[in-house]
Design brief:
alpha+beta
């Protein structure tokens, strides 16, 4: 009975749309399914702590109804309304807006006879019009969602039918938890399902997650352990296990659960076993899975938070001023009520003025005044601008349209332009005061180029490779252009993605649907099919500049000493190989295999050897036999955050050793001898992919460099391999290893094959992968080494993490221990040098484990990976037990070059008064180098480095630095007035920069030091936070935003920037190399950092200025027009009478004067885009809110009062003593008010186009047309006075024209005079800039030089589009060194002495200060 009630309650809520409002407001974007990394807009309802999934089969019928039958099905509904609830629910939502409630109250009030001011229907007209417009907009938007929902729900997939005992076609909406689903290559996954079978021989399923996170590179998913060994497809009828997993949640990177067999054996499940809804099957013929989450409980739907809605600063200010208008209305109504009471008191005995009620009762003046108060509120209701909010929404949509239509934002290489994801904060772009930027991928290209390495304490500078990079110009071939076109994006994406996929005709979607959905099946909104598929690159991180690595000659000489004879001697008299040689071998093996790179070769499907084929298989070498036996050994499996292996039976390691002992010292196949004179293996000038065509390969094969191992027949050569990397760092290291003939050949869940030059192909048994995470800052692979047959752990990660894990003592003797210490010291020096050159550094280490140690670790790790609760903590502890006592092999230095136009953009933004902070996880030296290279720091800046380990030391050092800054800069802010003094620091003569590390930042963010930290940063021109975690990034933004109350902007490109982007007032994502997580969480998305300058300085300035003036104009015209009614009350006994017909009164603001300000808000350009880019200083006006200050608002209202006085009394004294009636007097007032209000806008406009003139003419003509038609038709509309034929008579009266002209001129004369004097005598910077737009090119350049002053007279105006592309090298800033408090000038290395004494004395743990200076980077 309980289940029935739950079912009925659920479906009733679905029918009536009674779900949580937050959930309903999520808009489902099918081209990008979700905001990755963002928090779910609601916490999903959990059916208990865990979820039990039972197969949807007859034997489990009762149990299925108990568990899975109560879960939601796969139908999605992203619409807000149904046919039944549209009207009531839409009205309910609209009346959440205070202005609508106010006008509803007035409409109801007008139905009360005692206070009725208008005809009942007329008062409802403004409200009905506004509600109808918004309802139509909401209805159309919801109907669009409904159509897309219907299309998605009716997609077809193969679902196992328990009745028909086979897979049948079913719609997505009918899929339920517990169903078995069979998918073919290029099909989209309909629900979250656990992978039980794959046609891949190794149990792998390749998926493309572009629908989730925007990443186009392939990812691997693994069949559940125990099912990968099956030779045939899993039979649902024989499936007798249950799944217990966590309740639905929005964490894409976590899945915890286990599969329970009938014998109560548990098999751990992780994210590696989960296929998520919205992903696409690639390179796999068919897969079978069981659904665990469906519909709105899938991770994709729980993450889909839709468009971001924020309230802008300007809108909050406008709401405050609306309250002032309400107060003004109350004062005017009280004046009217009081005046009416006094009037009646004076004429209390004159019945003509005080008409009694039908029963003879006379209303007292006090009560009449009370009734008049409400009548006046109805009469003067237009003072509150009901149409303002609708106009603001329309204007913002127009502004967004023009931003997205700006061709200067288009990036041809990425085939992308700016995206406006937040619809209502465009004006905030013009008020930014603080900018927080990520470094990697945001300021830099995120194209990782291998530059240097240190192995066994020897530095290899790769000079030849540096020279190649200096002269390299990455040309874009015609093939690239063709593949970048949107129309070809689908075909060019699908072909290389699935080279091993055979056509499957029995797929549920058929060939047409499969092609239609190849790139992203859910991009179905417009029904244009393939053209709607988002652009996707052919292969990530594979441009020639990244793949072509020229080896270092010294390192190649040492490679030539590596021969098979070093490892094949069987007697013990032969000396062991040199230690350095072993380090070199292990170093490059680690580069090749310590990653998650997916290897694919065109037209070369992998084959797996089964046991049955052993007898008939020709054995060519002992190496192949060894590889074969290794396939039967312990298999690798995965875990949620740390991929792990299965637990072997007792004695497996020993059995494994004995089985392979025969081959441990056998002679390997002898390859061709290596020669150190080859270059990169990737073809020069090829397209942006590491997969050349077959024709290129045929031309290449005969000319293999001497020493390169020719592939055996049927195997692809190294240059034809495609590497699908999840990060550019991984790809760069794999390509570097390939340059030294250590080529990653293939990767399966069980083994990794590396072709190591002279040693031939080496097959490593892959036991575990412990992936990188932000806590450990490293990744590890556990393999069984084919040469030594030992279990080896290869680890790579940040030097700060690896150096702490190195072994401090060695059991082999003091000499080896001493040698390791020497290597560690030398490597640390090399790391510091790499960092000063701006390179990203990684350390490589290894550890050899005994079989006993491995078995013990594996047993504990298995318990961790089968746990559902606290699994992450247990797995982290398990990883820490494995990753210790490491042996350092070496380090790498990878260059991430600055994006084009970054230095110019940052320079312009700083001139615009924006304080820029760089938040990065990189080393201190690397961050400082990049800060100088991108002009965030200047050569003459005084640089302070805050690197402490304790709170007390941090406080002391901050006090010392702050005291020195305040002594040298008296204008710096004082403790008592932190916010007020911020503006002084931007214009002071002293430039200072602050560098703070992660540990010091952690101290500074504590409660007691926050204010002191902000005071210190306020004195600095730029701040660099290095070694910062994603959480610290968001905390810094939150601290600055909340304590200083400034407008903040955060920009980043990766998932680690999402929290920072969401905390800031405006979040901007860059669609770069790290997927689309940042883009999907952002308010705006751009292709490159240099576009930020135009977005803020041009469009931000325009949007803020337009909207500010438009809002002020709305207040002005409403107050000016309503005051005409108010002044008339003094001449009609405050009786609430109107001298204007009610229809004209209502339509005046609603129709006749509403279009011009909207056009103004969309099209106004006070200064040209070119001038705004050349004069970033003009942006400061928006930061100070100069266009919309409280004083500006009150001056606008005073001007409105003056104009209304003129507009009323000029006609009044003109017609005084005449016999015109009430409406004949009101008509000149209305006409003059129309001209005054419209011409007022013309005076305020800085650019008048034909569109402006057309709309203005249309407004005037519509007014006259309505007045003429209404005057001709309305004979008895409003007795006793009627507007019949009034306009027709006035048109023939010259006095009417004289009144209109005179009134308009007198009313607008003060404002026109002020604007004229302002432009000539005391022009604002914007007025001066407007004058520049009217000059010739030569005059303009001279004027710009004068503007900038004598100090910068020779500098060309900033315009990044005219500057050459950034070179590959980072040039060190020039100029004489400046004495620094903590660090030296950037132009030379710091002396390891006096300059860091102060900081070291404060904190003995601070060791990195010695290297805090920045050496001039090499020009190579």
């Amino acid at each position: 009975m309980t289940e029935c009630l739950q079912w009925a309650r659920y479906h009733w809520q679905r029918l009536m749309g009674g779900r949580n409002r937050d959930e309903d407001e999520r808009s489902y974007s099918y081209s990008s399914l979700l905001v990755c990394g963002g928090k779910s807009s609601q916490t999903p309802k959990l059916a208990g702590k865990h979820r039990v999934v039972v197969p949807h089969l007859w034997p489990f019928k009762d149990e299925y109804e108990k568990y899975s039958g109560t879960y939601v099905n796969n139908r999605i509904r992203t619409t807000k309304y149904t046919l039944l609830n549209f009207v009531p629910r839409n009205l309910f939502e609209q009346f959440h807006r205070a202005a609508n409630l106010y006008f509803l109250f007035l409409a109801v009030l007008n139905w009360v006879p005692l206070v009725e001011a208008f005809q009942k229907e007329i008062t409802m007209l403004p409200l009905v019009v506004v509600l109808t417009i918004i309802a139509i907009k909401d209805g159309l938007e919801d109907y669009r969602k409904y159509k897309i929902d219907k299309q998605i729900n009716n997609l077809v997939t193969k679902v196992y039918s328990r009745k028909e005992k086979r897979y049948v076609d079913q719609c997505w909406k009918d899929v339920a938890v517990g169903d078995f689903i069979r998918l073919s290559c290029n099909e989209v996954i309909p629900a979250d399902m656990v992978l039980l079978f794959s046609t891949d021989p190794d149990g792998i399923c390749h998926i493309e997650t572009s629908g989730l996170d925007g990443e186009s590179n392939l990812k691997q998913r693994q069949v559940v352990r125990g099912y990968a060994e099956q030779d045939s497809e899993v039979d649902p009828e024989k499936f007798s296990s249950k799944i217990e997993c966590e309740s639905p949640n929005n964490d894409l990177n976590r899945f915890r659960g286990y599969l329970e067999h009938p014998n109560k054996e548990h098999v751990g499940l992780s994210k590696e076993n989960l296929l998520l809804r919205g992903c696409t099957i690639r390179n796999t013929e068919a897969v079978v899975g069981i659904v665990v989450y469906a519909g709105h409980e899938t991770k994709a739907m729980l993450n889909n938070s839709g468009p971001r809605y924020k309230r802008s600063k300007l809108e909050r200010r406008a709401n405050t001023d609306v309250l002032w208008c309400v107060l003004l209305l109350v004062v005017m109504c009280l004046t009217g009520a009081l005046g009416h009471g006094i009037w009646l008191s004076r004429y209390e005995n004159i019945m003509f003025f005080n008409i009694p009620e039908p029963d003879g009762h006379v209303i007292s003046p006090v009560l009449a005044g009370f009734y008049m108060f409400w009548t006046m509120i109805i009469l003067l209701q237009v003072l509150i601008p009901i149409s303002l909010y609708v106009s603001i929404e329309i204007v913002k949509l127009g502004q967004i349209y023009f931003i997205q239509s700006d061709v200067d934002f288009y990036n041809e290489k990425m085939d992308s332009t700016v995206q406006c994801r937040a619809l209502n904060i465009t004006e905030d772009l013009g008020q930014i005061q603080y900018l927080f930027s990520d470094k990697t991928g945001t300021l830099t290209e995120n194209k990782m180029v291998f530059r240097r390495c240190s192995v066994a304490g020897f530095d290899y500078c790769h000079e030849e490779n540096a020279k190649r990079l200096e002269s390299y110009q990455e040309a874009v071939s015609e093939d690239e252009d063709s593949t970048d076109t949107p129309s070809d994006s689908l075909s060019n994406m699908a072909k290389p993605r699935a080279p091993s996929c055979r056509t499957v005709h029995n797929g549920p979607l058929g060939s047409k649907s499969s092609n239609h959905l190849a790139g992203n099946c859910l991009a179905l909104g417009s029904g244009e099919g393939a053209s709607e598929v988002p652009h996707s690159r052919q292969a990530a991180f594979s441009s020639p500049i990244e793949t072509d690595v020229v080896p270092d000659t010294r390192l190649l000489d040492k490679f030539s000493q590596i021969t098979p004879q070093l490892f094949t001697a069987l007697d013990e008299t032969t000396p062991d190989p040199p230690l350095e040689t072993l380090y070199i071998i292990d170093f490059f093996i680690a580069l090749a295999i310590c990653n998650t790179v997916v290897v694919s070769a065109p037209n070369q499907p992998r084959q797996k050897i089964g046991l049955s084929s052993l007898s008939g298989m020709p054995i060519k070498s002992l190496e192949e036999i060894k590889n074969l036996f290794q396939r039967w050994s312990v298999r690798r499996s995965s875990s949620p955050s740390l991929a792990s292996g299965k637990e072997p039976s007792p004695g497996v390691p020993n059995a494994f050793v004995s089985r392979l002992a025969l081959f441990s010292r056998m002679k390997l196949a002898s390859p061709v001898e290596e020669e150190a004179s080859h270059t990169s293996e990737s073809p020069q000038g090829s397209s942006n992919s590491s997969c050349p065509t077959e024709t290129e390969q045929q031309n290449r094969d005969p000319g293999l460099p001497e020493g390169e191992v020719a592939p055996s027949p049927g195997q692809p050569s190294a240059s034809t391999l495609c590497y699908e990397a999840e990060s550019p760092d991984e790809a760069a290291l794999v390509y570097a290893a390939r340059a030294y003939q250590c080529t990653l050949r293939s990767r399966t869940p069980e083994q990794v094959v590396v072709d190591f030059g002279a040693l031939g192909p080496l097959t490593f048994q892959l036991l575990h992968i412990l992936p990188f995470d932000s806590v450990r800052k490293r990744m590890s692979v556990v393999v069984r080494h084919p040469l030594s047959n030992q279990v080896v752990v290869y680890t790579k990660g940040a030097d700060s993490a690896i150096m702490e894990l190195l072994s401090v003592a060695s059991p082999d003797g003091a000499s080896l221990e001493k040698q390791q210490m020497i290597i560690r010291e030398k490597t640390q020096k090399h790391l510091d040098d790499y960092a000063r050159r701006g390179l990203r550094t990684l350390c490589i280490a290894k550890k050899v484990m005994s079989d006993t140690e491995y078995a013990e670790w594996l047993r504990n790790h298995f318990l961790a990976e089968t746990s559902i609760d606290h699994r992450e903590e247990l797995l982290l502890e398990s990883a820490m037990r494995l990753e210790n006592k490491l042996t350092l092999l070496g380090a790498t230095g990878i260059e991430d070059r600055l994006q084009e136009g970054v230095p110019e953009s940052i320079e312009a933004l700083q001139k615009a008064g924006i304080k820029i902070w760089m938040l990065t996880g990189d080393k201190q030296e690397t961050a400082i180098n990049v800060a100088y290279a991108c002009k965030l720091l200047e050569p003459g800046d005084k640089l302070f480095i805050l690197n402490t380990q304790s709170k007390d030391a941090c406080e002391t050092l901050m006090s010392t630095i702050l005291k020195e800054l305040q002594e040298k800069n008296p204008a710096s802010p004082e403790r008592a007035s932190l916010r007020e003094g911020l503006q002084h620091t931007q214009d002071c003569g002293l430039r200072a920069g602050l560098v703070i590390t992660g540990k010091a930042l952690q101290c500074a963010l504590q409660e007691g030091l926050q204010r002191q930290f902000l005071e210190l940063t306020a004195c600095c021109q730029a701040v660099v936070c290095c070694r910062a975690t994603p959480l610290q990034k968001s905390e810094v933004v939150k601290l600055v935003r909340s304590h200083l109350r400034v407008m903040t902007l955060a920009i980043g490109d990766g998932a680690n920037d999402v929290s920072m982007i969401q905390v800031a007032d405006i979040g901007i994502g860059i669609s770069g190399q790290e997927g689309m997580q940042a883009v999907m969480a952002s308010d705006f998305a751009i292709a490159q950092f240099r576009h930020l300058g135009r977005l803020l300085l041009v469009h931000g300035h325009w949007c803020y200025t337009r909207l500010s003036n438009m809002i002020l104009y709305f207040f002005y015209k409403n107050v000016a027009y309503v005051n005409l009614l108010f002044w008339y009350q003094f001449f009609c006994g405050f009786s609430g009478t109107s001298m204007t017909d009610y229809w004209v009164l209502i339509l005046f603001n609603l129709l006749f004067t509403s279009a011009p300000p909207v056009i103004y808000g969309v099209l106004e350009k006070d200064v040209s885009a070119e001038t705004l880019m050349q004069l970033p200083e003009l942006y400061k006006g928006g930061q100070k809110s100069e266009a919309y200050l409280p004083l500006t608002f009150w001056i606008t209202l005073l001007d409105a009062f003056y104009q209304s006085l003129v507009c009323f009394f000029v006609p009044y004294y003109t017609y005084q003593g005449s016999d015109i009636d009430i409406f004949a007097f009101g008509n000149p007032l209305n006409t003059a008010a129309l001209f005054i209000i419209i011409l007022h806008l013309v005076i305020e406009s800085k650019s008048l186009t034909w569109i402006h003139m057309l709309v203005i003419a249309g407004s005037i003509l519509s007014y006259f047309f309505f007045a003429l038609v209404f005057g001709a038709m309305c004979v008895t509309c409003n007795p006793p006075s009627n507007p019949y034929w009034i306009m027709q008579e006035h048109i023939l009266d010259p006095v009417f024209y004289l009144v209109c002209v005179l009134t308009t001129c007198v009313a607008l004369l003060p404002r026109f005079t002020y604007r004229a004097l302002q432009g000539s005598l005391f022009p604002s910077p914007v007025r001066r800039a407007q004058h520049l737009d009217r000059l010739t090119a030569e005059e303009r350049m001279d004027a710009l030089k004068k503007w900038r002053g004598a100090g910068t007279a020779g500098r060309a105006p900033w315009k990044y589009a005219e500057r050459p592309a950034a070179k590959s090298e980072r040039r060190g800033p020039s100029g004489p060194p400046t004495a620094l408090t903590v660090a030296s000038a950037p132009s030379r290395a710091v002396e390891q002495g006096s300059s860091s004494v102060r900081e070291t004395a404060l904190d003995s743990d601070f060791s990195e200060t010695k290297a805090s200076g920045r050496a001039r980077p090499s020009e190579g």
